[in-house]
Amino acid sequence: MSDRYLRPDWFTRTIFNPLVAWFTARGLSVYGSRVLAVRGRTSGEWRTNPVNLLEFEGQRYLVAPRGVTDWVKNIRASGAGELRLGSRSEPIHVSEIPDAEKLPILRAYLRKWSWETGAFFEGVGADASEAELRRICPNHPIFQIER
Fold first, then answer.
1. Structural domain contains residue 37
2. Which pLDDT score is estimated for 22?
3. Could you tell me the CA-to-CA distances from 43 to 3, 38, 40, 71 in Å, in that order?
């Protein structure tokens, strides 16, 4: 398991993520975006982050394009959180997908979200070979939202 993490740049931290979170908090999903709320693993305080929800083959997934972020560490510790859109809040439980099972999910995520997050996947796109996808799988945690 990789501990790779790509820190957001100034624009993403101060403009893009807050803007997506602002729209999402008002019920306007940007192409399926949500606000993920997870309790901090040490503080117990709610922490929020905009995420790109992926629906694929009848399941829902959260993919971490930047790697092992704080939301990843927090949801690994708790196994639960909330997906928020406007005033609606959906409690969720998640299970982490092992690297060996990530390829089709990662490919689907790249097809849908590479226009926004493609820069974080080391030049690997949705049409990449299985070997290229397998190489980057450990760098991108994926969580299935349990029903």
1. yes
2. 85
3. 21, 11, 5, 13
The DSSP 8-state label assigned to residue 79 in this structure reads S
d(CA 142, CA 97): 6
Query: CA 120 → CA 28, 40, 41, 43, 45, distances in Å?
Result: 25, 24, 25, 29, 28
pTM for the structure as a whole: 0.89
Output DSSP code: residue 72. Answer: H
pLDDT digits (tens, 9 = 90+) for 30-39: 778 899 999 9
Single-letter code of the amino acid located at 89: S
Find the domain containing 118 and state its range: 10-145
CATH of the domain at 97: 2.30.110.10
Helices of type H across 6-123: 10-11, 17-25, 70-78, 103-117
